[in-house]
Design goal:
By secondary structure, the chain is mostly beta strands. It has helices spanning about 5-20, 115, 120-125, and strands spanning about 20-25, 30, 65-80, 85-95, 165-170, 175-180, 185-195, 215-220, 230-240, 250-264. The chain binds 2-acetamido-2-deoxy-beta-D-glucopyranose (NAG) (3 copies).
């Protein structure tokens, strides 16, 4: 071969070996698939918790999950008479965003499933009640004029970064459950669609140990909400009332819950 022909020959060999087609002895070509690195496991998509048995809350359908929050505050009750069951009379809570802690996402801050399920109990038992209490109140009631201290992120033992403050949960003058979130960018005025009992192994609360409040589904009341269409209260800890001891007896019972906030 002349040098020039040799060069042509080697170029042809190089092209042939780069081709994904390989000639088999039987005259058929087969495609050689180059090796690839295995794909990482798919990141977990947050799924609304279940109580594990019995009737469950209706799913959020096509609504989009916007935040998962932990709320800490009080459930407030009033008593009609000695021996009756206290009636719900609003609630007050501060809420922090825990979306980044959801297990299995691969995020640096993600908790284990056990830590996630136990987070409301841990917040109830290891962080201070984030409310201004009424002066001289013996019942744990909040200061009516200024119940909330200045916004602050929440440090929780075993959680790497402080939880970002997202807003407040309260009942408005018309006794409508309300969430004011994200510096006023999101507002929810809800009505109760359904409630189911918390699981039997839920944290019943520390003081008093009266049981965990129901899990709830709330939807927008009369189009008054902004940027939020559905709120679920799940993984509750504490908050149920004590038996009434007297007519007019107020009760304010500490509780925590996860709130799952959806928009359209
Ligand atoms: C195999 O590939 C070679 C080179 O691309 C081609 O010339 C030949 O016809 C192919 N044979 C078959 C059976 O497809
Ligand atoms: C909470 O932390 C974030 C950073 O994660 C910060 O931007 C924000 O100002 C903090 N909020 C408060 C109320 O301290
Ligand atoms: C709590 O309930 C009592 C009645 O038991 C009521 O007087 C008080 O205003 C309520 N406080 C809040 C913050 O809802």
């Amino acid at each position: 071969m002349q040098p020039r022909n040799l060069l042509t020959f080697f170029s042809a060999v190089a092209l042939a070996s780069a081709s994904p087609l390989r000639r088999r002895c039987d005259g058929h070509n087969e495609t050689i698939t180059p090796p690839t690195t295995p794909a990482p496991p798919p990141a977990a998509v947050p799924t609304l918790p279940s109580t594990g048995s019995g009737t469950q809350l209706e799913s959020p359908g096509a609504a989009t999950l916007k935040h998962i929050l932990v709320g800490h505050g009080i459930q407030n009750y009033t008593c009609a008479a000695d021996g009756t069951t206290a009636a719900s009379f609003g609630a007050l809570a501060v809420v922090w965003d825990i979306t980044a802690l959801y297990p299995g996402t691969g995020a640096a801050d993600a908790l284990s499933p056990e830590e996630w399920d136990g987070l409301t109990s841990k917040v109830l038992r290891t962080t201070p009640l984030p409310l201004n209490l009424a002066a001289g109140a013996g019942n744990g009631g909040a200061d009516a004029a200024a119940p909330f201290p200045a916004p602050a992120n929440l440090t929780v033992e075993g959680v790497a970064a402080p939880l970002p403050f997202l807003g407040h949960h309260f009942f408005d003058a018309a006794n409508t459950p309300t969430f004011a979130l994200a510096g006023g960018a999101e507002l929810f005025k809800g009505k109760r669609d359904a409630g189911i009992p918390a699981p039997a192994d839920a944290d019943a609360g520390a003081d008093p140990a009266t049981g965990a409040v129901d899990w709830l589904r709330l939807s927008d009341k009369a189009g008054a909400s902004v940027g939020v269409s559905l709120v679920y209260r799940v993984l509750t800890a504490g908050g149920n009332p004590e038996p009434c001891a007297a007519a007019g007896q107020p009760q304010s019972v500490p509780y925590t819950a996860q709130y799952w906030i959806y928009g359209n």
